[in-house]
Design goal:
single chain, mainly alpha, about 0% strand
Length: about 90
């Protein structure tokens, strides 16, 4: 998957995860970073658990996997001690 596809999927997934987990987004760059990291986490977990390459382009499956990975990332960061609950 090309860098432009990662950015687009990351932006969509990060925005959706920010809306679900916080109620508002994290800004353009924050959403992209959260979405890309979520895509990496979600893709890794999908490969390990199900043996499929789920993040492979700009499609609904890639966005869903990146979204779930982004939600997991936000939940883990919020669970760390010393983090603001905001």
């Amino acid at each position: 998957m090309g860098i432009l596809a990662w950015i687009i999927v990351g932006l969509i997934a990060g925005f959706l995860a920010g809306m679900v987990m916080k109620g508002s987004g994290y800004g353009l760059v924050g959403n992209i970073i959260i979405g890309i990291l979520g895509g990496l986490i979600g893709g890794f977990l999908a490969t390990v658990l199900f043996g499929v390459d789920a993040v492979n382009g700009i499609d609904l499956t890639s966005i869903l996997v990146a979204f779930l990975g982004s939600v997991l990332l936000i939940a883990i960061v919020r669970a760390l001690p010393g983090q603001s609950p905001v």
